[in-house]
Design a protein that fits this description.
The protein is an alpha/beta fold and 246 residues long. It has one domain: Rossmann fold (3-Layer(aba) Sandwich), CATH 3.40.50.1820. The chain is built from 7 helices and 9 strands. Strands 1-2-4-3-5-6-7-8-9 form a 9-stranded mixed beta sheet, with helices on both faces. Helix 4 links the parallel strand 5 and strand 6.
Length: 246
């Protein structure tokens, strides 16, 4: 585990917070890194703990990605944020993601990075996509709004997945954002999952298939190998399709 300790200057009294990275290493040379980003709250300076459900929810996604990609050189890094909230102009989660990207660049200079984020982590992934090493972004049930900038996605491959039964973040806002950002992104695909909710419990195998397939497809395009997960994705979401309901 790689840790950092820093001081955020917020509207609350200054306090020391800690973000952490858990690394599932590639087998052999690292040729790419998937960075997994968890959800949170709109406003909270409470530290994130390992037992909180938001980071725990992403553990299986990290393991699926690692199992699919480790033998091809894909490492999977999972970020545990310093605090639970986005916190308005502080954008606490984005600060943590920027730090994580710096750590990846320092350890693996020049490798492509694939961002996978859920809920607040989806907003974080979209916002951090302007890092020059980011190749692709997966946003799962993300917090998106008319104010969310699309410019960070310029030149990136993007997949947005949202359950139609989500009552915590808005599927319609995600679709509207996907259409708005499509002109900037290298590719944009939006998948609506019938009946699925915010926490990705219902139809969980499909959530995982979409994430792993999309990341492995983007990674394969950079490294030149083929992977069956990419074929599964193509069956679910044809490359020519921009909006799909499953």
């Amino acid at each position: 585990m790689t840790d950092r300790r820093t001081e955020f200057h917020t509207n609350e009294p200054a306090a020391r917070r800690e973000a952490a990275l858990t690394v599932l290493a590639a087998a052999g040379t690292t040729r790419g890194v998937a960075l997994v980003l968890h959800g949170g709250k709109a406003h909270s300076f409470e530290p994130v703990e390992a037992h909180h459900l938001s980071p725990l929810r992403m553990v299986t996604f990290a393991r699926h990605l690692h199992r699919a990609g480790k033998d091809h050189g894909l490492a999977v890094w999972s970020l545990r944020n310093s605090v639970r909230g986005w916190n308005g102009p502080d954008r606490s989660a984005l600060q943590d993601a920027r730090w994580a990207l710096q750590q990846i660049s320092a350890q693996h200079p020049g490798v492509p990075v694939y961002l996978v984020g859920h809920s607040m982590g989806g907003l974080t992934a979209v916002s951090a996509a302007d890092d020059p090493h980011v190749d692709a972004v997966v946003a799962l049930a993300p917090w998106l709004s008319p104010e969310t900038p699309a410019t960070p996605l310029t030149g990136r491959q993007v997949l947005i997945v949202h359950g139609t039964g989500d009552h915590m973040t808005s599927p319609s806002q995600s679709l509207t954002f996907a259409r708005r950002a499509a002109g900037a992104a290298a590719s944009m695909q939006y998948v609506a999952l019938r009946g699925a909710g915010h926490f990705m419990v219902r139809r969980d195998r499909l959530w995982h298939a979409l994430v792993t397939g999309f990341v492995m497809q983007a990674f394969a395009e950079r490294t030149g190998f083929t992977h069956p997960a990419a074929g599964t994705l193509a069956e679910l979401v044809p490359e020519s399709s921009t909006e799909v309901t499953l």
